[in-house]
Request: fold
Amino acid sequence: MTKLMRRLASTGVLLAVSITVLVAAREQAAARHFPPAGNWEKRDPASLGLDQAKLDEAIKAALATENTNTKDLAVDIPNTFRNEAPYNNLIGPTQERAGANLVVIYKGYAVAAAGDNERADMTFSVTKTFLSTVVGEAFERGLIKNLNDKVGPYMPKGVDLFASEHNAKITWDHLLRQTSDWSGTLWGKPDWADRPPPGQTDPKEWEKRELVEPGTKYKYNDTRVNVLALATLYLFKEPLPSVLKREIMDPIGASSTWHWEPYENAYVTIDGKKMPSIPGGGHHGGGMFINAWDMARFGYLFLANGKWGTRQLVAEKWIAMARTPGVRPDYGFMNWMLNADRPNRVSFQGNGPNTIYIDWTNDLVVVTRWLRGGNRFVDSVVAGIKK
Reply:
């Protein structure tokens, strides 16, 4: 069997499993508990079939894996991306972060929480999943007709993001899957300076990179993510944080403390109004600042297959597409991290680490922040579920 045939076969299996899980989630939704704004009902873990001793032990072990870097993110971020100098300078806001913290939601109830989970902290690339969700809203409204459409024709006259021969080939799907290989500079950050290959320390060498056909190669690249954010802003003609607040965060009962911050120079004028174009992460500062409880609500929305109460906030079709892998087999739409061995679990991941785990089989959402042992913690929680 060729590599292509194996990839297609694997994609087909994952899509079939995704559809099966979505059907099961729909059946559970009718009886699902949805927490009101400002209050997530707490339940004794043992009353829901969790081993309290194992859970306590897992929490203690997880908190012991706290990120040991400085909590001053204005120092930590440039240092993390020091190989990108001189383009690793901050152009968005930061703040000193909290310590390790976590939240566990099981069967719709809060069964565990630890650390400063009320603080609205930077969440880095988890921001990308908020962005892709807003793109899903554009798709649902018909502002994007087909994800395989080229993005250029959707842009207003005079916007040259996709004017070059290479960039003109880029589709919405390419941007969502980070396979666009968009070439250019946005907000003072050239695409080629974003995470240069190991050993390349001379910017003059980075700039000589060879372009590849859009859609053929995965490359994690925040400049191109920010291109997607700007392109989507031109569709809505409204700041994307406002769209997210109205369509997602307010309906799910999120707090008023989250905020999505732009770079200091990331503004455009649309219909005579100056608007911020937000980034899809905290690579250069900015991005989503949010607390763990609001992250849990966002994850719980997808555990419920895009539904909150009686309202379908995110289309089932969009979730199914987001969970379908592309060129990279463990990556759907940004930042949906997939696992072929555990197709019932996905995660939204960011530097820190900051992670939202969603496990449909076990009716579980786990948020972990600033700790290295997040995966082990989730496995320990699952191991403590009494069958």
